[in-house]
Amino acid sequence: MLxxxxxTFIDKTIQMLQNDVLxxxxxxxxxxxxLQYIIELxxxxxxxxxxxxxxxxxxxxxxxxxxxxxxxxxxxAAASAAAGATAVAPLMAAGGA
Length: 97
Prior knowledge:
The chain is built from two helices and no strands. By secondary structure, it is mainly alpha-helical. It has a domain at 1-54. The mean pLDDT is 84.
């Protein structure tokens, strides 16, 4: 399907890329600078996303803690009111207060 000259070009390119010296040059001169440039561009956004995630996680923990303590506090207040009502009921029946 490919023309013969294109197949030979692809074969020669593959043979050239098998060379370790050429691989090292491509890595040092093309890939590493490109990756370093991309990391320099993306790093501030990664820091911002991590900070926002940390703040959200902290807020979730605080809200959950407030909800748990409010529910426990409400349960304690309701229990003490119920205990007070049961303690006052016999006195009222006896003609106390």
